[in-house]
Amino acid sequence: MSIDKPKETKDIFRSANPGDRISDEPQTIEEKAQQLAVDHVPDITGDIVTVPTYVIVEEPDGEKKALHHVKDAEEISDVIRQARVDENGERIWD
C-alpha cells in the first residue's frame, strides 16, 4: 500500500483555529491589525481574552510590520526583549 504525495508541496501555515489562518489574498497592515485569533473567549482561568492574529511592530527605520502571533512568535519575543533595553543596553522594564 502506498500513500500518494501531492505533486507540489509548499510551506503552508495551517491551523484549526480560523482566526489564526493567514489569508491567501494580500492584506494591508490595517487589515491585519483588525484580525482577531480569539475574540472575547474565556481562557483556562475563566478570564475573558481577545488575542490579535497579528502583532504590529515598528522597525527601526519606521516601517510597520505585521507579525503573526503563532508563525512569528520567536520574532515577537525578540521584539519584546529588545523593547526591554534602552539604547545603552540597560534594562528598562522588570
What's the mean pLDDT score?
Answer: 82
Care to count the β-strands? 4
Fraction in beta strands:
15-25%
Shape: flat
Which structural class do you get from the secondary structure elements? Answer: alpha+beta
Task: Give the neighbour order of strands across the main sheet.
Answer: 1-2
Number of helical segments with 4 or more residues: 2
Radius of gyration from the CA trace? 18 Å
Low-pLDDT sequence parts: none
End-to-end span in angstroms?
58 Å
Q: In percent, how helical is the residue content?
A: 10-25%
Largest sheet: 2 strands, antiparallel
User: What are the secondary-structure elements, in order, as H or E?
Assistant: HEEEEH
Q: Brief description of this entry?
A:
The chain contains two helices and four strands; from the N terminus they run αββββα. With 94 residues, it is of the alpha+beta class. It has a two-stranded antiparallel ribbon with strand order 1-2. Strands 3-4 form a two-stranded antiparallel ribbon.
